[in-house]
From TrEMBL:
Species annotation: Actinoplanes sichuanensis
Keywords: Methyltransferase, Transferase
GO BP annotations, alphabetical order: methylation
SUPFAM superfamilies from the UniProt entry: alpha/beta knot (SSF75217)
Residue ranges constituting the tRNA/rRNA methyltransferase SpoU type domain according to the UniProt record: 36-166
Protein name: TrmH family RNA methyltransferase
Keyword Transferase found: yes
GO MF annotation list: methyltransferase activity
Pfam families named in the record: SpoU_methylase
Length: 172
């Protein structure tokens, strides 16, 4: 008979986590710059907190409302408002940031083969129906593909972003 499984308390879990700074972590940034569904933003914000990433969002009023409603952490999260997604991506790339898109592309690396991010990395997520706009594809340094066995061609933004963030953070 196997030993009983003991669930750790919240205090025990907090005691083994790395200390959190209150300023921007800056190493990983999830960028759902063309969101379709507001519920996905709150879910992605929760994942960003879990892996120590920031969230970059477009300046739509409904995005701020979605984040406020979806922030189940009930404390401030690291959120950057991006005025022009294309200009912001170009500026990030010029500054030496690795810009990685989650997209079905011939040159895409499979999620299982994606190494952890070793420098500042922006993970770009496109619109759930149309993907990353063609004019933004030229601003990517690379793409990652999440293999699927079923009949669907993609996952929703929150699920896809969460999988890739965990891999980039070196947590899976």
């Amino acid at each position: 008979m196997s030993p009983a499984i003991r669930v750790r308390t919240a205090r025990e879990i907090r005691s083994v986590r790395r200390p959190r700074r209150h300023e921007c972590w800056g190493h990983l940034v999830a960028a759902p710059l063309w969101p379709m569904h507001d519920a996905n933003l709150g879910t992605l914000l929760r994942t960003c907190d879990a892996v120590g990433a920031c969230l970059a969002v477009p300046p739509h009023g409904w995005v701020d409302r979605a984040l406020a409603r979806g922030n189940t952490l009930r404390r401030p999260a690291c959120v950057h408002r991006v005025g022009s997604p294309l200009r912001w991506l170009a500026d990030e790339r010029k500054a030496g940031t690795s810009v990685l898109g989650v997209e079905l592309a011939d040159e895409a690396i499979r999620l299982a083969d994606l190494p952890p991010a070793r420098r500042r990395t922006v993970m770009v997520l496109g619109h759930e129906a149309t993907g990353i706009p063609p004019e933004a594809l030229d601003l990517l340094d690379g793409a990652v593909e999440i293999p699927m066995v079923g009949t669907g061609s993609s996952l929703n933004v929150a699920v896809a972003g969460s999988l890739v963030l965990y891999k980039l953070a070196g947590l899976m």
